[in-house]
Specification:
The complex is a heterotetramer of chains A (382), B (273), C (335) and D (303). With 382 residues, chain A is α/β, with parallel strands linked by helices. Helices cover 46% and strands 18% of the residues of chain A. Chain A has 13 helices and 15 strands. Chain C has a single domain, classed as ABC transporter involved in vitamin B12 uptake, BtuC (Orthogonal Bundle). Chain D has a single domain, classed as ABC transporter involved in vitamin B12 uptake, BtuC (Orthogonal Bundle). Chain D contains eleven helices and four strands, in the order ααααβββααααβααα. In chain D, strand 2 and strand 3 form a beta hairpin. Classes of the chains: A alpha/beta (382), B alpha/beta (273), C mainly alpha (335), D mainly alpha (303). Chains in contact: A-C, A-D, B-C, B-D, C-D.
């Protein structure tokens, strides 16, 4: 009995501490932002936050939206964990009364979050969730400003490989949701195209330091093009170690693979001459929105965001602001209707944006970039 | 309850008078031969003792008999049945309970719980009856508690039944350990230096207590250091030295045996150095 | 009246007519009605999940004192069993609940029986290894059934025909806390049974336990199997709540968190587990405002906690609760 | 054949890192019977200290001391820094908790680990950092088609040197004897007049120092360092410790090297994605047949 009593007391305490927090406050146009501020993907969350704040600055400086209402960002950490992701989404919809939410990075986190937004009819725009299946679930309120892995995979198979006239291709991924997706789409597209032979397809474990084993294996298959679909920090190690054990195949990175950090880790001597299939590489955009964004971001944080995803988060805010402003409404269904039907070629940071019926972004121009000897990039004209 | 105990005994008693018998028992630790071709016979209803200087291998014999060590050679029998190779808990359920030289109680459990645990092998409620508190299990629990309280009363610790074992006095801890052993309702009780660390008064009480419990159809085998205790209560004494049996017999015989005195006292002196 | 009755007799029955229990259950019932906010109800749900997981680890770590730093592995087995069987064969969740438990239990039995004899830290690293093996295998998508890093999507809500469909936060809240309530009841009963005592004896002194006739190996395995089964249930509920299972939910870090739950609360103390689970699951939410500093604070908090309450916030009180003597009651006593 | 030799070399290199970290675990465990979960993060800290000195301070360090001098300086700074941090951790987070039993200490260690990891993230940012090329020599050797970096050889030499020295101290000197004695039985050792506090000081300074050294070497060798590397290396090193027999210094070294080689070979000849599964399976198998690790000697239960 005593123990029952104890449990009872504990529960009282817990209830109290919950109720105290229950006093939530309100705010006119609040947009939620969900991202991994802690945990292994913390770097992405950090940059997403910075990008969205920069975008908000751009809008608010122009007098905000809906004649004079400022945009406020409600930031919630989802630690790149599905559980935390679901909680974060629930927090944004049921406590902060956000108009819409920018959520989130990582497909397996976006999944449960988007389910919750759907249930509460809140527009949610993913910025780093590229798994093709996400938009195939018939969700009404789910959008994404990032591309889908399949488009890029097809681009690699049908544009890049022929460009190098390669007949032997190797693909390496890192078993993260994004990289695996891209790798498999690329493989599929390669087989469909049937031009080149896929001589090697394997995974590495992210976060480690020594990738010489898979690379040695890869070397034995002597490919002409070597496509790594993972992230920059592994990519940097891999290109080093690949060159050091004498792999001279053309190195092509997916759009998470190549950025300043990649160059710092690989060292310019190895980074120069690497290619990448890239959607939105902010330093490369020259449209006024991008220029303004870059200028403001640099002013605050010194550098430029090193990952495309964070910039997409900025896009998401631009898109939402536009929709709310144009429709003069914060009603989710009105916004959904506008985003899917009215909005076309909206000039955002990473160029014109529109959405199809599934909420996928239309018209993301994927390009092949090359790293120059001075560490800058340039588009490869085909 | 008396009746049940009786039945239990019936099943355990075999016609032989010899309760425990070891044959040519040998245990080595690396190079050292701790127990060397040791033969021992324990007679029913009597208090037998093993004496001998430190390191003579007495405790090792106990540890082998109770299955904590496996012997390198030799066998041992309990009531004519071969029990060598059995696991410790199996040996207890056969009816051999023991105490330890350096007291091994369940420190953070109450005295009552300690003695109740002693009856583990004498109860059988399984997982589901326990989870659902089936009547059978409740009944058994009550029986366990009742026996435990009897034993605690017997060793005069009933007052401390809700104290944690680690919080009671040293002497009481020894008695508690004996109570725990008795709770398993053993046929043979093995005591490893029960009087060590006790003052004269306490060991006096202990002897009386043993004389007391031996009456309830029990056999006792004990290791002792303290000659007086041994001589006081033992019916039969076996003297061990360097793993070997060097003498055995009635206390007074052994007491006067020159070999014993020589070996024993000789060692004692070494100890003082 | 005799409410503080520690030993076997009739505690189980008493709980029914005990007003404490009534108040507790009332509190449970009222919470979602008092606090209508879905976020807090969800937080309370995950608090429940962690409580269940904590209780399951408590059997192994708290009661028997076996270091288990891979406990999330068992939860993973349960969660994936539910996810895979539900998504590919449409078997309802309520049917899968026991199946997941059994699957986790069998897994636990198979992996722990060869290593159950290991002591302390050796067992610890083996359980870590076991947990990592499970996680890595899931990531590598064997036979294409675990969905690799993406995990398994689109798990149904628990439902019995159309009579009862658990599809919103409040229902899930009741779902998990009923499960926790039943578990707590069962564990209280076990603590006061010969099995619970046997477990504690093993924790206190393995040799004395063996010498008191306790089959140490059997009871260690029993603890692991039972703990795993409970973890499997928790995993299964978790899966149906999130509608997705993915490997990162079952990382080594999470196992460490469970370990902390048991020690923050106090080994083998059921109210302790509630406190521990509350600390682990509420802390990150309450400290959301600190964003990336939050885990920093959390780490420091753990250290302080152990500094000031090394025995746990609410250690199990033994012997404080007096039992009336059966001898006295039955008049057999001389005292 | 060439492949095998290459992989063996790489295995030895990464193995020597594991070994250096494992030594810290093993020494602390030996004397304190405490799994110092924070050790992996101390290693990461060392790596970041070296980075700060070398990369952020290139202008002063490398330019004045030259590339080699710079690296030596970085290693020294990292070693000292982590050593001091190790002592701080012991003072603040462990010493008050030892008396209350081992498990609370383990939790406290977990707390410290989480704290350090996130502290690194807050101070140096969540982005992975890189030891840039300008502070690191990259000469290639080509021995009969085998391509080996000079760095790799130097790192191997240095780690073996360090292990050798430690081995000598622990096995051949009286102080080492004192350490081993306190590892066997702290109380008795103390009664024998061994200054336990001095020993604790030694292990908690030296263990992390070795880890910190390894941290810098990992940075120099692989270039990329990140705030979560502590967990990865820490877990592997702890595995190595147990594999070799925890509390046993030579065991830790051998365990580390074996683990490194196993990892490489398993990855080469079994499966790259499953290599850690393979590693843990081997560990479990070893423990089934040698419950106290490869070099751990069987201690008879005192009854």
């Amino acid at each position: 009995m005593k123990r029952i009593k104890n449990i009872f007391i504990v529960l009282v305490i817990v209830t109290l501490c919950l109720s105290v927090n229950a006093l939530a406050q309100k705010d006119p146009v609040v947009i939620g932002l969900q991202g991994p501020l802690t945990g292994s993907a913390a770097v992405e969350g950090e940059m997403a936050k910075q990008c969205v704040e920069t975008a908000a600055l751009m809008i608010n400086e122009k007098g905000g939206i809906l004649d004079g209402r400022m945009i406020e960002i409600e930031l919630v950490d989802d630690a790149a964990q599905p559980r935390a992701g679901a909680l974060a989404a629930m927090k944004l919809v049921s406590m902060r009364e956000v108009v819409a939410s920018i959520a989130t990075y990582g497909s397996s986190v976006t999944q449960p979050a988007s389910d919750i937004y759907e249930k509460f009819n809140k527009v949610n725009i993913a910025y780093g969730a590229t798994v093709t299946g996400l938009s195939e679930r018939g969700l009404n309120y789910f959008f994404r400003t990032c591309g889908r892995t399949d488009t890029q995979g097809i681009f690699f198979a049908e544009e890049v490989v022929p460009y190098f006239g390669a007949s032997r291709v190797a693909i390496l991924h890192d078993n993260t949701s994004f990289a695996l997706g891209l790798a498999e789409e690329a493989r599929k597209a390669l087989l469909d195209a049937g031009e080149a032979e896929l001589v090697y397809f394997d995974a590495i474990t992210p976060g480690e330091s020594d990738y010489t084993v898979p690379l040695t294996r890869l070397r034995e298959t002597n490919p002409e093009v070597f496509y790594f679909t993972g992230y920059f920090s592994e990519a940097g190690l891999i290109i080093r170690q690949a060159r050091e054990i004498g792999i001279d195949a053309v190195f092509v990175g997916g759009d998470a693979a190549i950025n300043e950090d990649f160059i710092r880790i690989a060292g310019l001597e190895y980074a120069a001459g690497c290619y990448m299939t890239q959607e939105a590489l902010i330093q490369y955009f020259t449209n006024p929105e991008a220029m303004e964004f870059k200028e403001k971001y640099q002013a605050t944080y010194g550098t430029l965001p090193s990952s495309p995803w964070s910039v997409y988060a900025g896009d998401a805010l631009m898109v939402l602001a536009e929709a709310i402003d144009k429709t003069g409404s914060t009603d989710s269904d009105v916004l959904v209707d506008y985003l899917k039907n009215e909005m076309e070629e909206f000039p955002s940071i990473t160029g014109p944006i529109g959405f199809d019926e599934k909420g996928d972004r239309v018209g993301t121009g994927i390009n092949l970039y090359v790293v120059n000897d001075d560490g800058s990039y340039s588009i490869v004209e085909r | 309850m008396e009746k049940e105990v009786q039945e239990l005994k019936e099943t355990m008693v075999s016609d032989t008078e010899i309760v425990l018998e070891t044959d040519n028992l040998t245990k080595r630790f690396g190079g050292l031969v701790a127990v060397n071709r040791f033969d021992l016979k324990v007679t029913k209803g009597k208090i037998s003792s093993i004496i001998g200087p430190n390191g003579a291998g007495k405790t090792t014999v106990f540890n082998v008999i109770t299955g904590i060590y496996q012997p390198d050679d030799g066998q041992y029998f309990f009531k004519g049945e071969k029990i060598s190779g059995l696991k410790t808990h199996q040996i207890l359920s056969k009816g051999i309970a023991r105490t330890f030289q350096n007291i091994r109680l369940f420190q953070n459990m109450t005295c009552l719980e300690n003695v109740m645990s002693g009856q583990h092998a004498r109860s059988q409620s399984g997982l589901w009856p326990s989870i659902f508190r089936l009547p059978s299990q409740i009944k058994e629990e009550q029986k366990i508690q009742e026996i435990a309280e009897r034993r605690l009363e017997q060793v005069g610790l009933i007052a401390y039944k809700h104290e944690l074992a680690k919080n009671i006095a040293y002497g009481n801890q020894r008695m508690l350990e004996i109570a725990r052993a008795l709770a398993s309702n053993p046929y043979l009780l093995i005591l490893d230096e029960p009087s060590s660390g006790l003052n004269d008064k306490e060991s006096e009480d202990l002897m009386n207590f043993l004389d007391e419990i031996i009456k309830e159809d029990l056999t006792i085998l004990l290791i002792e250091h303290d000659m007086n205790v041994v001589m006081g209560i033992s019916d039969w004494v076996t003297v061990m030295d360097e793993g070997k049996k060097i003498a055995e017999g009635k206390p007074e015989e052994v007491y006067s045996d020159p070999i014993v005195i020589e070996a024993y006292l000789g060692k004692e002196e070494e100890e003082e150095i | 009246m005799n409410t503080n009755n520690k030993t076997g007799q009739s505690t189980g029955i008493k709980i029914k007519n005990n007003w404490f229990a009534i108040v507790v259950s009332l509190l449970f019932l009222l919470f979602p009605l008092v606090i209508k906010n879905n976020y807090f109800i969800d937080v309370a749900f995950f608090f429940g999940i962690y409580t269940l997981l904590g209780l399951s680890l408590n059997i192994v770590l708290g009661e028997v004192g076996l270091f288990d730093l891979g406990h999330m592995g068992f939860a993973a087995i349960g969660a994936y069993t539910t996810a895979i069987l539900n998504t590919s064969f449409g078997i309802p969740i309520f049917v899968l609940l026991p199946i997941s438990a059994i699957a986790a239990a069998i897994f636990a039995y198979l992996v722990t029986s060869p290593i159950i004899h290991l002591r302390g830290d050796y067992l610890c690293i083996v359980t870590i290894g076991m947990g990592e093996i499970v996680r890595l295998t899931l990531i590598n998508n064997p036979f294409g059934i675990t969905g690799g890093p993406n995990g398994v999507f689109g798990i149904d809500f628990p439902s019995i025909g159309n009579l009862l469909i658990i599809d919103n936060s409040v229902k899930f809240y009741y779902f998990i806390w009923v499960a926790v309530g039943l578990t707590v009841l069962a564990l209280i009963h076990l603590q006061d049974s010969r099995i619970g005592r046997a477990w504690n004896c093993i924790r206190e002194d393995i040799i004395a336990a063996e010498a008191s006739g306790i089959d140490v190996r059997y009871y260690k395995l029993l603890a692991f199997v039972l703990g795993a089964a409970l973890a499997g249930v928790a995993g299964s509920i978790y899966a149906s709540k999130l509608m997705i299972v993915s490997p990162e939910s079952f990382s080594f870090m999470e196992s460490c968190m469970l370990f902390c739950i048991v020690l923050i609360g106090g080994m083998g103390s059921i109210p302790g587990i509630l406190i521990g689970a509350a600390a682990i699951s509420l802390f990150p939410e309450i400290f959301q405002t600190f964003a990336q500093y939050r885990m920093l604070i959390f780490g420091a908090a753990l250290v302080l906690m152990m500094m000031f309450r090394p025995g746990g916030v609410w250690p199990r009180q033994r012997g404080k609760i007096q039992t009336e003597s059966i001898l006295v009651k039955t008049g057999k006593s001389e005292i | 054949m060439k492949l095998v030799i290459e992989q063996l070399l790489n295995g030895l290199t990464i193995g020597s890192f594991y070994a250096l970290i494992a030594l810290g675990y093993s020494m602390v465990y030996g004397v304190m019977k405490l799994i110092n979960f924070a050790h992996g993060d101390l290693f990461a800290l060392g790596s970041y200290l070296g980075y700060t000195l070398l990369v952020m301070g290139t202008a002063y360090v490398t330019s004045t001391l030259g590339i080699w001098g710079g690296m030596i300086a970085a290693i020294l700074v990292a070693a000292i820094g982590t050593g001091v941090m190790g002592l701080l951790v012991e003072r603040i987070a462990y010493r008050p908790i030892y008396p209350t039993g081992r498990l609370p200490a383990v939790v406290s260690a977990l707390g410290v680990s989480i704290f350090l990891q996130n502290a690194i993230m807050v101070v140096w940012g969540a982005r992975p950092q890189a030891y840039t090329s300008d502070v690191i020599p990259s000469y290639m050797l080509n021995i009969g088609g085998l391509r080996i970096t000079v760095l790799q050889i130097l790192i191997l030499l240095l780690s073996f040197l360090l292990m050798g020295v430690l081995y000598y101290i622990v096995q051949k000197t009286t102080f080492g004897a004192a350490i081993r004695a306190s590892a066997l039985d702290r109380e008795t050792a103390a009664l024998m007049g061994i200054n336990i506090n001095l020993i604790i000081f030694f292990i908690f300074a030296l263990g992390p120092a070795l880890g910190g050294t390894a941290g810098v070497m990992v940075g120099i060798y692989y270039r990329r360092i990140s705030f979560i590397m502590g967990w990865n290396y820490g877990l592997k090193a702890f595995t190595a410790t147990i594999l070799g027999g925890i509390g046993n210094i030579p065991g830790a070294m051998i365990g580390g090297l074996i683990l490194g080689v196993l990892e490489m070979l398993g990855s080469t000849y079994i499966s790259t994605p499953y290599k850690d599964v393979f590693v843990f399976l081997v560990l479990i198998l070893v423990l089934i047949f040698r419950p106290r690790g490869i070099l751990g000697e069987k201690v008879a239960e005192k009854v």
